[in-house]
Each structure stands twice: as C-alpha cells, then as structure tokens.
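re: ur question from earlier - yeah i can do the single chain one, its not a big deal. heres the input i used so u can compare w yours
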Amino acid sequence: MRYVVTVNDRQHTIELEANGHVRQVTFDGRPLSVDWQLVGRNQPAITLASDASADHYSLLVGDQSYAAYARAVDDLDGDEQVGRTIEVMIEGHPYVVNVQDARSQALASLAGGTHAAGEATIRAPMPGLVSQVLVAEGDEVQRGQTIAILEAMKMENDLTTPRAGRVRAVRVAKGQTVAQNAVLAIVGDVEDAPVSDESDE
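and the output i got, formated as tokens:
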C-alpha cells in the first residue's frame, strides 16, 4: 500500500508491505525494515482510536530500537481526502503526522485542492465511466459534497468538491466514458455566472 505522509510540514512517500510482524517499508525510495508492537496488548497494528490517551509502541527500525507514543487526532473537517492526523512522540521528540493513501491524495489533488474561494475544477483522476451525476448547474454545494461517481478499476470513486459554492458548469452525463483529467464540473462563488462549454478544457 502506498501512502503520502506529511511530517511537521515535510511530505514523504511511503510504501508498506507486511511480512509477518516485520514491515518492508520504502521511505522516499529508500528500503527499510520496520517492526512495531503495541506495548501491553497482543495487537501489532496501530489502533487509531480518537481518545485522549496515547498508545505506547516498541519500534524497531533496522537494528535500532525506539520507544514511541501515538495518539490519533480527528480528521480535518471530517474530510477523508484530507487524511488522518496522528501526534507521535519518539524518544521525547514530538511529531505531527498526516497520513493519506495515495489514491485519496490523487483524488484531492485532481479536484483542485482545498479551495476556500476562487474557481475549483473537478477532474477525473483516472479513465472511467460516470455512473452518477449528483448535481446540476446552479446548485449550491458544500465542501466535500459528492459531485459525481466514477466507476474505474472495478471501484466506485466519489468525486467531491474541495470548496463550498455554486456549480457553474457540469460537463458530463450519466453513462458517459471520460478520459483521465477530463473536466467533470466547475464550482465557483455563489454569485458567479455560469461558464461556457469552451473554457477550462
């Protein structure tokens, strides 16, 4: 599984493959052998519970051993595409870690990021079939609202708007096949006028 991890505002790419308790991890292209055990329980995996207490882990990176504590923080705005934030303390050093799987990160990026204002163009992150269009031109939408559902690679992908506003244009219809990066819809400010079909291609 591939993840995009932001640690204290620095972004890294991690690929994780379990082999028993030892995880084969690729960190920014560099292979590492990593193992972690939850102290006091029989579960080797991190439990991302949003309680106030931090879980204690025994962490082994290569032949180096560390004591680590982790506490999950609520997702920002409840938005799955933003990712999951974890506060981590390793050997007395604090870190704020945001974890996002690569698929969600690509969806959020191609949707135009987290706009508060200005025009947001929602694009197809991959080729696929539009199974549903859930908005119409002129509709008011909230940030994170699903605009369309794209069937691709035997999965249904909810494509959401990164900002609240008004739907200025809908460029696809149910049953339509689209290419990667095809414009599905445009969301702008509430007072914006609709846009023509020729723009933003």
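Residues 111-188 form a domain with the OB fold (Dihydrolipoamide Acetyltransferase, E2P) fold (CATH 2.40.50.100). not sure if urs matches, ping me
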